[in-house]
Amino acid sequence: MIVTSPKTKGSKAGPATMAVHFPRGLVGLEHWKDFTLLAEGVWPIMLLAPDADPSRVLPVCMAGLLLRGYEFELPDAFVSLLNLQDPGDALVLAILTLQEDPPLVTANLLAPLVVNRRNGLGVQVILEDSGYPLRHVVYQAP
After folding, report:
1. Would the pTM of this model clear 0.85, i.e. be above it?
2. Of 4, 12, 86, 115, whose CB count within 10 A is highest?
3. Per-residue b or e along 49-60, where b marks 16 or more CB atoms closer than 10 Å to that residue's CB
4. How far, in Å, CA of 21 to CA of 1, rounded?
5. CB 86 within 8 A of CB 60
6. What does the DSSP assignment read for the chain?
7. Omega into 44 within 30° of 0, i.e. cis?
8. Cα-Cα-Cα-Cα dihedral of 72, 75, 81, 83, to 10°?
9. Which residues 6+ apart lie within 8 Å of 44 measured at CB?
10. pLDDT tens figures, 36-63
11. Chain centroid to CA 1: how far?
């Protein structure tokens, strides 16, 4: 299944707060499986907070807002795991990294998060040989 991420501000990200379960965890955070996605605040940045430690949040953004034409083939195993019936139900997120000095924001487009908006199941997909960057520059201080 080809999945894409909405490219416009008017695109529906999902509810303001959404429970998300990652059966396989996230890369480097395999022990955390249950999260809350908070879409309130400064659009288009959302926060993904692990239920086990809500003080440790991951800033995320809809990947299609960061790179025009961002799309990939979601392997059938993940389509099945997410019980994804329609590509439009896939919320594709990139984890953001914030650096203070010098100010720099990057997005991981190599390993996006795919969440089924209908059931809250999510998976992190490693897009090997895709050409997408691990550190796509979103903002860099002049």
Report:
1. yes
2. 115
3. bbeeeeeeebbb
4. 21
5. no
6. -EEE---STTS----SEEEEE-TT-BTTBTT--EEEEE--SSTT-EEEEETT-TTS-EEEEEGGGTSTT-EEEPPHHHHHHHT---GGGEEEEEEEEEETTTTEEEEEEEEEEEEETTT-BEEE---TTS---SSEEEEE--
7. yes
8. 60
9. 9, 13, 61, 62, 65
10. 999 877 778 999 999 999 889 999 999 9
11. 17
The chain-wide mean pLDDT, for the chain, equals 89
What percentage of the chain exceeds 90 in pLDDT?
Answer: 72
Structure tokens at 86: 């329609």
The whole-angstrom separation of Cα 88 and Cα 14 is 11
- Going from the N-terminus, what domains does the chain have, and what CATH number goes with each? 2-140 (2.30.290.10)
Say if strands 71-73 and 58-62 run parallel, antiparallel, or are unpaired: unpaired
Residue 92 region, left (φ>0) first, then alpha (ψ -120 to 50), else beta?
beta
